[in-house]
Write a structure and sequence with these properties.
It is built from six helices and twelve strands. It is of the alpha+beta class and 292 residues long. The strands form three sheets. The protein has a five-stranded antiparallel β-sheet with strand order 4-3-2-1-12. Helix 1 packs across helix 2. The chain is elongated, with a radius of gyration of 26 Å.
Length: 292
């Protein structure tokens, strides 16, 4: 059997309960013989359906996610994506890479060819025991993944007090839940850009930059310039100098280097390459009535 046909056969087995249709086995003939004791060892190590390997089951599940995103503009949880023409849809990207450091590749779907409100980047893992994809992270596009399971997600907007510094949120993967946990966010204040109320007493290194470490519930509040008495709005959290900011960042990222991911356009041909089968065969397998 060729590699393509074998991969297609494995995919059909995996999706037989959902896409290929249920098939009831014919009733068994009455057994009049004395029952025989089953001495074969129990298989407790293979939760994958139809005897697929972990990698085969993962790839088949990822192919289903990509196929649905491409053809129906929908994510596994029912989220409807900002679609458009085929050219718009295929301007989005995906990659297969072990970004969380668990030794198995994840699916990273980068839905970027849409209005800003519809742009998103989603990381999916695979739950071998459940046979389902698991959403590990969903953020605005542009996430930087680091070795050791850290991720840096830039905000969609900048409050424009930090000039070239763009605010971001740090995440770290929790191996127990296989999801990314929010470790906090950071924004900055550049004295060159906004001098009113700049906290000179906090800027110990004198570089004209201070930082604000934020939790999920951050908000703005009314402040007053201690020197000139002028009022301004800024974060509730007090700013810190560069040394404290870097200590916070190092506590999450450490010395890990950014990972290099190879993204591919979300085209029919590239989706088919996930299982090494022609896209027409993939469509027929996932939607067996499509051919009429």
């Amino acid at each position: 059997m060729s590699r393509s046909l074998a991969a297609l056969f494995l995919l059909c087995l995996l999706l037989s309960l959902t896409a290929c249709g249920k098939r009831e086995d014919p009733p068994a003939a009455p057994d009049t013989a004395a029952p025989q004791e089953d001495t074969s060892p129990a298989n407790t190590d293979d939760p994958k359906p139809s005897g697929l390997t972990e990698d085969e089951a993962r790839r088949a599940a990822f192919a289903q996610v990509l196929h649905t995103a491409h053809d129906r503009q929908e994510l596994p949880d029912g989220t409807v994506l900002d679609g458009g023409s085929v050219e718009d849809i295929e301007g989005n990207l995906f990659a297969l890479h072990d970004v969380d450091g668990d030794g198995a590749e994840e699916l990273i779907l980068l839905w970027q060819n849409a209005a800003m409100g519809g742009q998103t980047e989603v990381v999916y893992g695979y739950g071998g025991e459940t046979g389902q994809v698991v959403e590990e992270l969903r953020e605005f596009p542009g996430v930087i993944f680091y070795g050791g399971g850290a991720a840096e997600a830039p905000w969609s907007h900048n409050q424009n007090w930090a000039n070239k510094f763009w605010p971001y949120t740090l995440y770290r993967n929790n191996p127990k839940t296989d999801t990314y946990e929010n470790m906090g966010s950071v924004d900055a204040w550049d004295k060159v850009l906004v001098s009113n109320g700049f906290p000179l007493d906090v800027d110990a290194d004198g570089d004209g930059m201070v930082y604000v470490l934020l939790t999920d519930n951050w908000d703005f509040t009314h402040h007053q310039d201690p020197a000139g008495g002028e009022a301004y709005w800024y974060y509730e959290e007090p700013p810190v100098d560069g040394a404290e900011y870097l200590a916070w960042r190092d506590g999450v990222v450490g010395e890990a280097e950014a990972l290099e991911l190879s993204f591919m356009p979300l085209t029919a041909e590239n989706i088919a390459q996930v299982l090494d089968v022609p896209y027409e065969a993939l469509i027929t397998t996932l939607t067996p009535n499509a051919a009429g």
